[in-house]
Amino acid sequence: MIDIKILRDDPAGVKANCLRRGITNVDVDALVALDGELRSVIQNIEAMRAKRNELSKQCRENPEARDQVKAMKGELAEKEARETALRAELAAGMSWLPNFLDKRVPDGHGDEDNVELRVVGEMPQFDFKPRDHQELGEILGIIDTARGGKVAQSGFFFWKGKGAQLATAMFFWVQQELVKRGFTLFMSPCAAKEKTLFGTGYLPFFADETYQLAGEDLALIGTSEQTLIGYHADDLLTSEEMPLRYTSFTPCFRTEAGSYGKETRGIFRVHQFHKVEQIIFCEPGDSEAAHEECLVNEEYLLQQLGLPYRVVNVCVGDLGAPGFMKYDTEAWFAGYGGYREVCSNSNLTDFQTRRLGVRYKDENGKRQFVHTISATAVTDRVVCAILENFQEADGSVRVPEVLQQYTGFDRIEAG
RNA sequence: GGAGAGGUGGCUGAGCGGUUGAAGGCGGCGGUCUCGAAAACCGUUGUACUGUUAUGCAGUACCGAGGGUUCGAAUCCCUCCCUCUCCGCCA
Fold first, then answer.
1. Catalytic residue among A341, A354, A359, A388
2. Which nucleotide does the CA of A43 lie closest to, via C1'?
3. Nucleotides of B under 7 A from a protein CB
4. 8 A C-beta contact, residue A388 and residue A396
5. Residue A43: which CATH number?
6. Considering the entire predicted model, what is its pTM?
7. Are residues A73 and A129 both part of a single domain?
8. Which of A308, A276, A325, A84 lies closest to A175 in space, CA to CA?
9. Has residue A99 been placed in a domain?
C-alpha cells in the first residue's frame, strides 16, 4: 500500500509509476475522486454527529431535543452507509497500486531485460557432457519426481537417501551461518490467513498462486516471508531493537498457475520447495544498507559452497508490485548450461508495513512505518546447482567441503 | 471434542445507560528538593482520522470484531473471533 497522501498530492506521479510498471487495471483519477468524495462525506457526518451529541446532552431537560435527534437519524444512517461503501471501494483500488521504484531499477519487460551487475566464481570444466540435475537425480536415486506425482500431484517430489542428506545438511548449515550473522532463527507456521497474505502484498496480486485450504480462512504459505513479516503486524517497534533480522526454514507452496510447460524439467519449478529466508525490519533510512547486507549473505553462501553465480538488477517488468528494488542471484547450472535464479532479494520499503501496521517511534516520537527486506538465503535449487556443478563423468557428485561435516560423506557415488 | 472463566489505555486494574477518553496503581515525561543521585512531593502523560488562522486549536471515532436497542452504550441484546482453566483425545 502506498501513502494516500502521496496519491492526493501527486496523482500524476502515481500514474506514471503504474504506467512504467505496466499496470493498467487501476484508474488513478477515479481513486483521487473517490478520496475527495469520501472526505467530504466524512466532514458532513462528523458535523452531524457533533450536533447530535450536543442535542443528546440536553435531552433530559428538553424533550424537544429528542425529537430533533430522531429526525436526523435517517439522513445520518444514509451518509454512514455511503461512507462505508466509499471506504471499501477506495481500499480495493488502493490495494492494487504498486510500490514506487528505486531510481536504479532498469526498464524492461521480462528477465531478459535484467541488468547483470557482476559475475563471480570459476566455471567448472568437464571433459564430458555434463548432465542436468534431473538426470543425475535419477542416476543416483536421490530425486523422485514420479512418486511425488503418485502421492501428491505432478510438481511434487521426493529428495531421497544421500540427496535428502545433502539438502538437509545445506539447509542446516545455512541456518547456522545466518544465526552467526545476527539472525534470529524461527520455526514458523506453514499456513496463514488472508489478512496476513494481503498484508505482505501477496494478495491481491498473486491470488491464483496460493493453495487455499477448503473451508478455512487459511492458505499454505508461498514463503515464510508471509509469516515472519506478519509476525509484527500491529506492533510498535523501537529504534533500539531494530534492525530485526529473522530467518526461518519452511516448505513453500505455489500453484504455479499459468506456468505449465515452463521449465518443467527436473525440480526447478515445483509446487513445493524448501527455503531458508532472510527477513530484516529496519528504519527507513537503513533499508538500502539492509538490502545490500542480504545480498552479501547470499553471495557469501554461494561462494562458500563453491558455486559460480551472477547478480542481476531486476528490471521493472520482472519486479513484483510490492517491490521497490530487487536483486536476483543466479547460480551457474553446468548441466543446463546457463545461469538460473536461485535467490531473490527485495527491498519492500513500507509497502507491507503500511498494510500490516508495523511501526516504530522515531527520534521525535512520531510514529512511522518501518521498512522490510525479504531475501532468499537458499532453496532446493541450490542443491540442484551443486549436483550439476560437482558432478563427475559417471554421474557421481562431490559434496561441497563446507557441508561435509553435516552430511558425513564427501561423495554421492553412482551405481 | 466436552465444561467453565475472561477480553478495558505502555502495563496493572476499576467502571456495568448520560458530567467516563475512561478512577487508583505502575511506568514515562517535566518540576521542587540535592553538590549529585535516590526517596518524597507537585504537575503532566493514549491512538487514528477530518478540518484548520497548523510543533497550536476544533471536531469525530476508538474499552476484542461486527451488528442491534436507545435521544445517548465500555456499560443492555445478538453473532463472530481470541485467550485462559479443567476433562477427553493426540505428534
1. A341
2. B50
3. 18, 47-51, 59-61, 67, 71-72
4. no
5. 1.10.287.40
6. 0.94
7. no
8. A276
9. no
Q: How far is the CA of A31 from the C1' of B70 (A)?
A: 37
Cβ partners under 8 Å of residue A331, min gap 6: A302, A307, A308, A309, A339, A340, A342, A381, A382, A385
Helix/strand/coil percentages in chain A, nearest 5 = 45, 20, 35
- Residue A352 pairs in a beta bridge with none
Q: How far is the CA of A186 from the C1' of B85 (A)?
A: 29
Q: Identify the domain boundary among A32, A59, A94.
A: A94
Based on the domain organization, do A406 and A313 belong to the same domain?
yes
Task: Give A331's strand partners.
Answer: A309, A340
Is A341 marked active-site? yes
Q: What would the pLDDT profile of A81-122 be if each residue is shown by its tens digit?
A: 999 999 999 999 999 999 999 999 999 999 999 999 999 999
A396 belongs to the catalytic site: no
At A71, the pLDDT band (50, 70, 90 cuts) reads: confident
Judgement on whether residues A34 and A143 belong to the same structural domain of the protein: no
Any idea which residue has 527520534 for its cell?
A363
Q: For A76 and B76, how far is CA from C1' in angstroms?
A: 23
Catalytic residue among A21, A245, A254, A355: A254
Name which residue leads in pLDDT, A276 or A64: A276
C-beta separation of A244 from A280 below 8 A? yes
d(CA A249, CA A335): 27
Same domain membership, residue A313 and residue A226: yes
Average pLDDT, stretch A156-168? 98
Position A219 in a domain: yes
Q: Measure the CA–CA gap between A294 and A346, rounded to whole angstroms.
A: 9
Q: Is A412 helix (H, G, I), strand (E, B) or coil?
A: strand
pLDDT band at A261 (very low <50, low <70, confident <90, very high): low
Please give the nucleotide, over all strands, whose C1' is closest to the CA of residue A35.
B50
Which CATH number characterizes residue A230's domain?
3.30.930.10
The pLDDT of residue A365 is above 80: no
Which residues constitute the domain of residue A377? 111-412
Residue-wise pLDDT for A394-411, tens only, equals: 999 999 999 999 999 999
A372/B9 CA-to-C1' distance in Å? 29
